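User: Hey, quick favor. My workstation is busy. Could you predict this chain's structure for me?
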Amino acid sequence: MFVERFVFAALPAAMLILASADNAWALSKQECIQASERGQQLRDDGKLVEANGQFLSCASDSCPKPVADACREELSSLDKKMPSLVLSAKAPSGSDLVQVKVFIDGVAVTDRLDGRAIPVNPGQHKLRFESGGQSVEEQVVALEGEKSRPVRVVFPAASAASSSPTKPAVESPAQESGGGGVPVATYVLGGVALASLGGFAYFGLTGKGEISDLRSTCAPRCNADDVDAAKTKMLVGDVLLGVAVVSAGLATYFVLAPKSAPAVTVGARGTGVFVDGRF
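Assistant: No problem, here it is.
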């Protein structure tokens, strides 16, 4: 009964988290003014990409006309100054790679190379390309006003060691939690919570980065598929956050439960981890 009450209590909070993603694009009058002010400060600090995102927000028709007009003028000025990079990668065979994840200064900016220019701030940047378990790094210095600068990398051939077959997983015997000590289920649920938090961080940051990229490159006329993909990543991140909350709560319950509570059996199978017991 405790578990059922906990799950049903956590569901409304998870639904509120999911519903909040649909309001990511809306700005109030005060938020329009604040976006304009932040954009000017970021512009003065040389952070043109971030400034562009703020000015795109306050240039919306929903903002007061004087604010929107000023933000549109700023966008026109930034468009001339903001440099951009066109990224490409090749396999050892020389063929073009498309499914490549790219990080700029540690922030994921894309997971697909499609020939489109990616805006960056003027200055030095560290790029990391990841594909097929390999990564290649590149340093570039982007000049103000430099448009569509090509950046090309070639992935090295995979080593013989990496191509060796992976040994099949060996089924481990189930372990039972007895009367003393911390139940094994606590560690399993704690691991699920940590893994879900990691997934939430990845998908949340990736989705946020893609939305920021869309705002700075094509809003409000972005491709619907690109917008849906970014929102989907944010929703997946929110769902994983809900899983983390529920798993952490259950782990806490097992720690605090009376020692006379029924034993819980936890074990590993070829297809995953199982938890068996009564509550």
